[in-house]
From TrEMBL:
UniProt name for this protein: DNA-binding transcriptional regulator, MerR family
GO MF term list: DNA binding; DNA-binding transcription factor activity
Name of a matching Pfam family: MerR_1
Domain HTH merR-type: start-end pairs: 11-81
Organism: Flavobacterium xueshanense
Assigned keywords, A-Z: DNA-binding
SMART domains hit by this protein: HTH_MERR
Lineage: Bacteria, Pseudomonadati, Bacteroidota, Flavobacteriia, Flavobacteriales
Length: 110
């Protein structure tokens, strides 16, 4: 999964985040309430504004729940027991997926 969000912005609205993840905003709100690692800022209207760190954590939650099939409780436990180790593995997987895509594109151009 490749998330397309502007790297120039400090904050992203819940609508932008939901669209990038191809999920409903209600799921993002639900995960925000369930996972302590998510700490979006709220503007004067109370709307959630997600930082790049929140986006990375959402990618990790998405990976655990949607791609690896963890239950919410399982994902919470996994994150609490080894958040740094899990994040490192997640980043390695994402980098390898990017390299794989690039290599496939090169192969197709040959």
């Amino acid at each position: 999964m490749h998330i397309e969000l502007s790297k120039d912005k400090r904050y992203h609205s819940i609508g932008e985040v939901a669209k990038a993840f191809d999920v409903n905003a209600s799921l993002i709100r639900f995960w925000d309430n369930e996972f302590d690692i998510l700490k979006p800022k709220k503007n004067a209207k109370g709307n959630r504004m997600f930082t790049p760190e929140d986006i990375t954590n959402l990618q990790l939650i998405y990976h655990l729940v949607k791609e690896r099939g963890f239950t919410l409780e399982g994902a919470k436990t996994h994150l609490k027991e080894g958040q740094k180790k899990t994040l490192d593995k997640f980043e390695i997987i994402r980098k390898l997926e990017t390299i794989r895509t690039q290599l496939t594109n090169i192969k197709n151009e040959l």
